Write the structure tokens for this entry.
Amino acid sequence: MSKLVEIEVLEKDDKNMRLLIRGVDVPYMNALRRTVIAEVPCMAIDEIVVIENSSTFQDEVIAHRLGLIPLKTDLEGYNLPEECPCKSEFGCNLCRVTLALDVESKEKTRTVYSGELESENPSIIPVSDTIPIIKLAKEQKLKLEAYARLGKGKNHAKWQPVSMCTHKYFPKIEISCKKCDGCGKCVEICPRKVLAKTGNRIEIRDLMACTLCQDCVETCPQNPPAVKITWEENAFIFALESTCVLSPEKIMTEAIKILDGQLKDLERQIKVKKSEKD
Ligand SMILES: [Zn+2]
């Protein structure tokens, strides 16, 4: 029996998205979370060729710093290097973007920022112009070429399109009016200010903020406690924060597409194995 999945968008902007998803279970939510973190590709600098470096930093340190700069990604315009028809280690126009950096400090110490990287494709650029790369003292120079490629978070964290992706149970709070004497201890102890006291009554102020920590239950002087914290079966709050390389919607739709493809592949392999046996 298949149940319908219900999705409600709780919050959404260019960076964050929070969804209320009903009708799924923990393994599915976890698979989706892991797909977002490890499987959705994005662009990152993967290799550099240093032409001149008279700074105090080693080439490797600069390469590492450049790799961690999030780059705006175009998933439709580029291939993953392993899937590109060029089959070349160096890459081609369909699987590689070149960015150049040519900076010099003429008079006094200065900081080089991500905005100074010049990309051959104006749509593949750092998400922010103000990420510091290196400090150069007077007369120091740095000239290099950097190659960005699509990659996946499971190979290196620089290819992770999100800085955060989580899911939690949808909380359920029950306050028994009969047992509660309105002492307010549960309101005071809650670190997320989920409950509020109005007169002698305890009310739920912000249900979504509840982390199911049970502090309010433990502090209640009544026996058994007047407040009960549980969670809804098969309802989850799913949250993600993009590093701005892709929009939150794009990350979610890609993750669903990838997960769906992996399940179809599994199904196909089972069928092949079965027919081999027959
Ligand atoms: Zn290629």
About this structure: The chain has two domains: 6-39+163-240, 43-159. DSSP finds five helices and twelve strands in the chain.
